[in-house]
């Protein structure tokens, strides 16, 4: 974050966008949606050996209302699809999704009647991690990539067109 | 007395065929006598534990055997022999275990495609509830007398029975949709 501090009175000058991005990127609280073997790697990445909390993924939220990043680790069966959709819909904005492993990305080795061929077709995914399963380093790398993505975001600019249109309509 | 002999004595005329392969005894019983034979096995022969109930679809097996036979026939140009009625397409196999004697037996029931009713053994073993539901889900056996014969693995609205050999591996494009209450 770029800021300018003025000594004495305790002033700090920065841009609202950067302040928001700073806050968001330093606290991407994960929602661990582990449905298969990749979930074990996710647990490993969260535990003390790799310690995802170093990068701000401090608090693993087991309720979709209190998290920012849906980490989908594992196979999604077609029976599970409505549940995943609902969990995603329940998350509060802003929200991001990481698809961990071949199964979440493309269905992996399970090209069968019961497996969803990639979660990209049901919810928007920000980061795909290949591997069967990816190593915990891979999950950490994805988190760092996501943090880069959040920092490059324009949270105020995003809805500008909508705001302008609304103002025009109200004239 | 060998296990095979004991089962023969226990079931009597209900035995259609009894085979042994590498120490595994497999006994075939007629479909109409499932409950009676199972009761005998449980109470007289001491098979008090039901490990699993599984289904088998023999469609490909018979088709292959027929093909091989035909080929052979063409080569040798023999007189075509009379063929019996086609064997029933499905099997239901019960895996029984005797906890006191540590013996296992497979009980096989042949099920033709046009009559998928099989008496449920849930009255004898409560443990049969879920395996029977699974076999119904995957093959479409109708276990009569089952207290709650719903799908176990696929969702309720799913229409097919996916482990049948004529069901495509990648499915027929079924999707699950749920309408959640939005209130
Ligand atoms: S990608 Fe591999 S390790 Fe991960 S859930 Fe699928 S099968 Fe398991």
Describe what you observe in this structure:
The complex is a heterodimer of chains A (171) and B (183). Chain A is α/β, with parallel strands linked by helices and 171 residues long. Chain A has one domain: Rossmann fold. Chain A contains 6 helices and 6 strands. Chain A is globular. The model of chain A has no long low-confidence stretch (mean pLDDT 88). Helix content of chain B is 26%, strand content 24%. Chain B is flat and about 60 Å long.
Short key terms for the protein model shown above:
heterodimer; A: alpha/beta; Rossmann fold; two-stranded antiparallel ribbon; 6 helices; B: 183 residues; alpha/beta; Beta Polymerase, domain 2; two-stranded parallel ribbon; 7 strands; 26% helix; binds iron/sulfur cluster
Mean pLDDT value of chain A: 88
End-to-end Cα distance of chain B, whole Å, is: 68 Å
**Most extensive chain contact?**
A-B, 9 and 16 residues
CATH architecture of the domain at 3-127 in chain B: 2-Layer Sandwich
Distance between the ends of chain A: 37 Å
- Assign the CATH architecture of chain A: 3-Layer(aba) Sandwich
Beta-strand percent range of chain A: 5-15%
Shape of chain B: flat
DSSP E strands of chain A, number: 6
